Amino acid sequence: MGGEIPWLRTQEVGIGDIWDTGVKITEAGLKNSSAKMIPENCVIVAMYGATVGKVGINKIPLYTNQACANIQIDEKIGHYRYVYHFLLSQYEYIKSLGAGSQTNINAQIVKKIKIPIPPLSEQERIASILDKFDTLVNSISEGLPKEIALRQKQYEYYRDLLLTFPNDEN
User: Fold this and answer.
1) Pairing status of strand 68-71 against strand 43-46
2) Which of 108, 104, 15, 109 is nearest to 57 (CA)?
3) Maximum Cα interatomic distance, the chain, rounded to a whole number of Å
4) What is the torsional sign of CA 91, 86, 140, 21?
5) Cα–Cα distance between 140 and 55 in angstroms, integer?
6) Which letter does DSSP use for residue 36 in this model?
7) Of these four, 36, 130, 132, 155, which has the most CB atoms within 10 Å of its CB?
8) pLDDT tens digits, the chain, 170 residues: what are they?
9) What range does the domain containing 104 cover?
10) Cα separation, 135 vs 15, whole angstroms
11) Is 170 domain-assigned?
12) What are the backbone angles phi and psi of residue 71, rounded to the nearest 5°?
């Protein structure tokens, strides 16, 4: 603690982008830990405690430990914002997969989550629409609670509609 290296804790993973961390560690702390470096624009899923199943995107390179599943998306296959929105839509399901008194999950559970992969252009279109709704919902947060609630429901409706795919396993 007390250094300059960004250290991500699970309580900092939530809905939205991660631009900074509340804790910074030193080089010595980094060497004496199980930390791994996460390049920017990874989808991060909290796996422990009260935030299990919460999803975020790191907008800066940072370090974290095994409490977070860090998904680095191959840009030729997937769009990271699409994967983020999809996993965000699966929060209750992911949370339900947890075990133990703190409802923890592990990396194997995260790896088994099936993410529909439409063509890259469609992923980008879906992510763009959901990002616009997300901005709308979060930018009008003062003084308009009824409007916010309506927009949140609209966002969830379109998110679920855009992320529903026919079952290809027949």
Assistant:
1) antiparallel
2) 15
3) 55
4) positive
5) 22
6) E
7) 130
8) 678 999 999 999 986 899 999 999 999 888 888 888 999 999 999 998 889 999 999 999 999 988 899 999 999 999 999 999 999 999 999 999 887 777 789 889 999 999 999 999 999 999 999 998 887 776 665 446 667 788 889 999 999 999 998 876 65
9) 5-162
10) 12
11) no
12) -110, 110
Whole-number Å distance between alpha carbons of 68 and 54? 10
Per DSSP, the three-state class of 157 is helix
How do beta strands 55-58 and 17-18 pair?
parallel
CA distances in angstroms from 168 to 15, 85, 164, listed in the order given: 30, 21, 12
Q: What is the CATH number of the domain that holds 119?
A: 3.90.220.20
Whether 167 is covered by a domain: the verdict is no
Q: How many separate domains does the chain show?
A: 1
Going edge to edge, which strands form the sheet with 23-25? 23-25, 5-7, 62-64, 36-38
**Helix axes 120-139 and 80-89, enclosed angle (nearest 10):** 60
